[in-house]
Design a protein that fits this description.
The protein is an alpha/beta fold. It is 40% helix and 16% strand. It starts with a strand and ends in a 19-residue tail after the last helix.
Amino acid sequence: MLFVEANGARIPAIGLGTWELRGRTCARLVAQALKLGYRHIDTAQVYENEREVGEGLRTSGVRRDEVFITTKVWTTHFAPNELERSTKESLVKLRLSEVDLLLLHWPNPQVPLSETLGALARARELGLARHIGVSNFTVALLEQAVAQCPAPLVCDQVEYHPYLDQTRVREACASLGLALVAYSPVAKGRIKGDRTLARIGERYRKTAAQVCLRWLVQQNVPAIPRTSKLERLSENIDVFDFELSDEEMAQIFQMGSAGTRLTNFGFAPKWD
Protein backbone atom coordinates (compact mmCIF):
# COMPACT_ATOMS: atom_id res chain seq x y z
CA MET A 1 0.00 0.00 0.00
CA LEU A 2 1.28 3.46 -0.89
CA PHE A 3 0.81 6.43 1.44
CA VAL A 4 0.33 10.14 0.87
CA GLU A 5 2.00 12.33 3.50
CA ALA A 6 0.76 15.75 4.55
CA ASN A 7 1.56 17.68 7.73
CA GLY A 8 2.55 14.55 9.64
CA ALA A 9 -0.35 12.36 8.47
CA ARG A 10 0.31 9.20 6.42
CA ILE A 11 -2.89 8.57 4.47
CA PRO A 12 -3.20 5.19 2.71
CA ALA A 13 -3.64 5.79 -1.02
CA ILE A 14 -6.79 3.63 -1.34
CA GLY A 15 -9.48 3.48 1.31
CA LEU A 16 -13.07 2.36 1.69
CA GLY A 17 -15.82 4.97 1.59
CA THR A 18 -18.89 3.92 3.60
CA TRP A 19 -21.57 6.42 2.61
CA GLU A 20 -24.97 4.65 2.32
CA LEU A 21 -23.58 1.43 3.84
CA ARG A 22 -25.72 0.41 6.79
CA GLY A 23 -26.11 -2.26 9.46
CA ARG A 24 -24.58 -5.69 9.10
CA THR A 25 -23.67 -5.05 5.44
CA CYS A 26 -21.48 -2.15 6.52
CA ALA A 27 -19.77 -4.10 9.33
CA ARG A 28 -19.16 -7.07 7.03
CA LEU A 29 -17.70 -4.94 4.22
CA VAL A 30 -15.38 -3.06 6.57
CA ALA A 31 -14.10 -6.32 8.07
CA GLN A 32 -13.66 -7.86 4.61
CA ALA A 33 -11.87 -4.77 3.26
CA LEU A 34 -9.40 -4.83 6.14
CA LYS A 35 -8.75 -8.55 5.61
CA LEU A 36 -8.03 -7.81 1.92
CA GLY A 37 -5.39 -5.23 2.85
CA TYR A 38 -7.30 -1.92 3.06
CA ARG A 39 -5.91 0.27 5.82
CA HIS A 40 -8.07 3.37 5.40
CA ILE A 41 -11.77 3.53 6.31
CA ASP A 42 -13.85 6.68 5.87
CA THR A 43 -17.11 7.37 7.72
CA ALA A 44 -19.08 10.41 8.98
CA GLN A 45 -21.59 11.34 11.65
CA VAL A 46 -24.31 11.88 9.04
CA TYR A 47 -23.77 8.39 7.52
CA GLU A 48 -25.20 6.88 10.73
CA ASN A 49 -22.85 3.90 10.50
CA GLU A 50 -19.96 4.77 12.84
CA ARG A 51 -21.05 1.96 15.19
CA GLU A 52 -20.90 -0.60 12.35
CA VAL A 53 -17.55 0.72 11.10
CA GLY A 54 -16.13 0.16 14.61
CA GLU A 55 -17.65 -3.31 14.70
CA GLY A 56 -16.07 -4.18 11.33
CA LEU A 57 -12.70 -2.96 12.57
CA ARG A 58 -12.91 -5.17 15.67
CA THR A 59 -14.07 -8.32 13.86
CA SER A 60 -11.37 -7.93 11.16
CA GLY A 61 -8.65 -8.88 13.61
CA VAL A 62 -6.41 -6.12 12.18
CA ARG A 63 -4.62 -4.10 14.83
CA ARG A 64 -6.06 -0.67 15.49
CA ASP A 65 -2.74 1.11 15.02
CA GLU A 66 -2.49 -0.27 11.47
CA VAL A 67 -5.75 1.33 10.31
CA PHE A 68 -6.38 4.96 9.36
CA ILE A 69 -9.94 5.91 10.42
CA THR A 70 -11.57 9.15 9.26
CA THR A 71 -14.85 10.59 10.46
CA LYS A 72 -16.52 13.91 9.69
CA VAL A 73 -18.39 16.37 11.90
CA TRP A 74 -21.80 17.38 10.55
CA THR A 75 -22.54 21.08 9.98
CA THR A 76 -25.12 21.33 12.80
CA HIS A 77 -22.31 20.51 15.28
CA PHE A 78 -19.94 23.34 14.31
CA ALA A 79 -20.44 25.51 17.43
CA PRO A 80 -17.33 24.89 19.60
CA ASN A 81 -18.94 23.01 22.53
CA GLU A 82 -21.13 21.07 20.14
CA LEU A 83 -18.17 20.02 17.98
CA GLU A 84 -16.35 18.56 20.97
CA ARG A 85 -19.48 16.82 22.30
CA SER A 86 -20.39 15.29 18.93
CA THR A 87 -16.81 14.10 18.33
CA LYS A 88 -16.81 12.32 21.70
CA GLU A 89 -20.14 10.77 20.71
CA SER A 90 -18.60 9.54 17.44
CA LEU A 91 -15.74 7.94 19.39
CA VAL A 92 -18.22 6.17 21.68
CA LYS A 93 -20.02 4.76 18.62
CA LEU A 94 -16.76 3.71 16.98
CA ARG A 95 -15.50 2.42 20.36
CA LEU A 96 -12.20 4.17 19.78
CA SER A 97 -10.19 6.55 21.94
CA GLU A 98 -9.29 8.67 18.89
CA VAL A 99 -9.74 8.85 15.13
CA ASP A 100 -6.81 9.34 12.80
CA LEU A 101 -8.50 12.17 10.92
CA LEU A 102 -11.41 14.42 11.90
CA LEU A 103 -12.92 16.57 9.14
CA LEU A 104 -15.48 19.37 8.89
CA HIS A 105 -17.94 17.73 6.48
CA TRP A 106 -19.18 20.82 4.59
CA PRO A 107 -18.65 24.57 5.03
CA ASN A 108 -21.24 26.18 7.30
CA PRO A 109 -21.50 29.98 6.89
CA GLN A 110 -23.87 30.17 9.90
CA VAL A 111 -20.98 29.62 12.33
CA PRO A 112 -17.80 31.75 12.12
CA LEU A 113 -15.12 29.56 10.54
CA SER A 114 -12.47 30.69 13.04
CA GLU A 115 -14.62 29.41 15.95
CA THR A 116 -15.18 26.03 14.32
CA LEU A 117 -11.50 25.67 13.42
CA GLY A 118 -10.53 26.60 16.98
CA ALA A 119 -12.78 23.79 18.24
CA LEU A 120 -11.38 21.38 15.64
CA ALA A 121 -7.82 22.18 16.74
CA ARG A 122 -8.94 21.76 20.37
CA ALA A 123 -10.30 18.27 19.58
CA ARG A 124 -6.83 17.39 18.29
CA GLU A 125 -5.21 18.89 21.39
CA LEU A 126 -7.50 16.81 23.61
CA GLY A 127 -6.39 13.65 21.80
CA LEU A 128 -9.78 12.97 20.16
CA ALA A 129 -8.15 13.05 16.71
CA ARG A 130 -4.55 12.61 15.57
CA HIS A 131 -5.06 14.88 12.56
CA ILE A 132 -7.67 17.37 11.36
CA GLY A 133 -8.88 18.64 7.99
CA VAL A 134 -11.83 19.84 5.94
CA SER A 135 -14.14 18.51 3.24
CA ASN A 136 -15.94 20.22 0.34
CA PHE A 137 -13.98 23.45 0.83
CA THR A 138 -13.38 25.75 -2.14
CA VAL A 139 -9.98 27.35 -2.80
CA ALA A 140 -11.03 30.60 -1.05
CA LEU A 141 -12.37 28.73 1.99
CA LEU A 142 -9.29 26.52 2.08
CA GLU A 143 -6.95 29.52 2.16
CA GLN A 144 -9.07 31.08 4.89
CA ALA A 145 -9.08 27.84 6.90
CA VAL A 146 -5.31 27.37 6.72
CA ALA A 147 -4.76 30.98 7.77
CA GLN A 148 -7.21 30.79 10.70
CA CYS A 149 -6.65 27.29 12.08
CA PRO A 150 -4.41 27.16 15.18
CA ALA A 151 -3.19 23.66 14.17
CA PRO A 152 -2.09 22.25 10.79
CA LEU A 153 -4.81 20.91 8.50
CA VAL A 154 -3.90 17.80 6.51
CA CYS A 155 -6.46 17.59 3.70
CA ASP A 156 -9.48 18.78 1.78
CA GLN A 157 -11.74 15.83 0.92
CA VAL A 158 -13.66 16.59 -2.26
CA GLU A 159 -15.44 14.92 -5.15
CA TYR A 160 -12.81 14.08 -7.74
CA HIS A 161 -12.87 11.77 -10.75
CA PRO A 162 -11.90 11.99 -14.45
CA TYR A 163 -15.16 13.76 -15.38
CA LEU A 164 -14.72 16.59 -12.84
CA ASP A 165 -11.86 19.02 -13.35
CA GLN A 166 -10.47 19.84 -9.89
CA THR A 167 -7.23 21.45 -11.06
CA ARG A 168 -7.73 24.62 -9.00
CA VAL A 169 -8.42 22.80 -5.73
CA ARG A 170 -5.59 20.33 -6.40
CA GLU A 171 -3.11 23.14 -7.01
CA ALA A 172 -4.31 25.04 -3.93
CA CYS A 173 -3.86 21.93 -1.77
CA ALA A 174 -0.37 21.39 -3.17
CA SER A 175 0.70 24.98 -2.54
CA LEU A 176 -0.71 24.89 1.02
CA GLY A 177 0.94 21.55 1.80
CA LEU A 178 -2.35 19.67 2.10
CA ALA A 179 -3.44 16.37 0.57
CA LEU A 180 -6.49 16.26 -1.67
CA VAL A 181 -8.60 13.18 -0.83
CA ALA A 182 -11.03 12.02 -3.54
CA TYR A 183 -14.54 10.85 -2.74
CA SER A 184 -16.75 9.39 -5.51
CA PRO A 185 -13.46 8.62 -7.31
CA VAL A 186 -15.14 6.33 -9.85
CA ALA A 187 -17.95 8.85 -10.45
CA LYS A 188 -20.50 6.70 -8.56
CA GLY A 189 -19.90 3.82 -10.97
CA ARG A 190 -20.38 5.92 -14.11
CA ILE A 191 -16.86 5.30 -15.38
CA LYS A 192 -17.44 1.54 -15.53
CA GLY A 193 -18.44 1.70 -19.21
CA ASP A 194 -16.06 4.48 -20.21
CA ARG A 195 -14.40 3.65 -23.54
CA THR A 196 -11.24 5.70 -23.05
CA LEU A 197 -10.55 4.14 -19.65
CA ALA A 198 -11.46 0.64 -20.87
CA ARG A 199 -9.14 1.01 -23.86
CA ILE A 200 -6.25 2.09 -21.63
CA GLY A 201 -7.08 -0.77 -19.24
CA GLU A 202 -6.82 -3.42 -21.97
CA ARG A 203 -3.11 -2.79 -22.20
CA TYR A 204 -2.66 -3.65 -18.50
CA ARG A 205 -5.50 -6.16 -18.17
CA LYS A 206 -7.25 -3.76 -15.83
CA THR A 207 -10.83 -2.47 -15.66
CA ALA A 208 -11.91 1.12 -16.32
CA ALA A 209 -12.34 1.59 -12.56
CA GLN A 210 -8.82 0.37 -11.84
CA VAL A 211 -7.39 2.74 -14.47
CA CYS A 212 -9.36 5.59 -12.91
CA LEU A 213 -8.09 4.82 -9.38
CA ARG A 214 -4.54 4.42 -10.67
CA TRP A 215 -4.82 7.87 -12.28
CA LEU A 216 -5.60 9.30 -8.83
CA VAL A 217 -2.84 7.31 -7.10
CA GLN A 218 -0.30 8.72 -9.59
CA GLN A 219 -1.40 12.24 -8.67
CA ASN A 220 -0.73 11.48 -4.97
CA VAL A 221 -4.47 11.72 -4.34
CA PRO A 222 -5.82 9.19 -1.80
CA ALA A 223 -9.13 7.77 -3.08
CA ILE A 224 -12.00 6.32 -1.05
CA PRO A 225 -14.25 4.36 -3.44
CA ARG A 226 -17.47 3.07 -1.90
CA THR A 227 -18.85 -0.30 -2.88
CA SER A 228 -21.39 -2.70 -1.43
CA LYS A 229 -20.02 -5.64 -3.47
CA LEU A 230 -17.32 -7.86 -2.02
CA GLU A 231 -15.81 -8.66 -5.44
CA ARG A 232 -15.46 -4.94 -6.18
CA LEU A 233 -13.48 -4.50 -2.95
CA SER A 234 -10.68 -6.70 -4.34
CA GLU A 235 -10.76 -4.91 -7.69
CA ASN A 236 -10.49 -1.42 -6.21
CA ILE A 237 -7.35 -2.16 -4.21
CA ASP A 238 -5.58 -4.03 -7.02
CA VAL A 239 -4.05 -0.92 -8.59
CA PHE A 240 -0.44 -0.99 -7.39
CA ASP A 241 1.07 -3.36 -9.98
CA PHE A 242 0.93 -1.13 -13.08
CA GLU A 243 1.74 2.43 -14.06
CA LEU A 244 0.03 4.75 -16.54
CA SER A 245 2.22 6.60 -19.04
CA ASP A 246 2.34 10.42 -19.14
CA GLU A 247 0.33 10.27 -22.35
CA GLU A 248 -2.38 8.12 -20.74
CA MET A 249 -2.52 10.42 -17.70
CA ALA A 250 -2.96 13.40 -20.06
CA GLN A 251 -5.73 11.62 -22.00
CA ILE A 252 -7.65 11.06 -18.76
CA PHE A 253 -7.14 14.67 -17.65
CA GLN A 254 -8.73 15.78 -20.93
CA MET A 255 -12.00 14.04 -19.96
CA GLY A 256 -12.70 16.54 -17.15
CA SER A 257 -14.96 19.56 -17.08
CA ALA A 258 -16.38 21.80 -14.36
CA GLY A 259 -19.98 20.77 -14.99
CA THR A 260 -19.93 17.10 -14.06
CA ARG A 261 -20.32 17.35 -10.31
CA LEU A 262 -22.40 14.47 -8.95
CA THR A 263 -22.69 15.59 -5.33
CA ASN A 264 -24.31 18.99 -4.97
CA PHE A 265 -26.75 20.37 -2.41
CA GLY A 266 -28.52 23.64 -1.82
CA PHE A 267 -26.17 24.36 1.08
CA ALA A 268 -23.03 23.72 -1.00
CA PRO A 269 -20.55 26.58 -1.41
CA LYS A 270 -20.11 28.40 -4.71
CA TRP A 271 -17.76 25.93 -6.39
CA ASP A 272 -14.50 26.85 -8.14
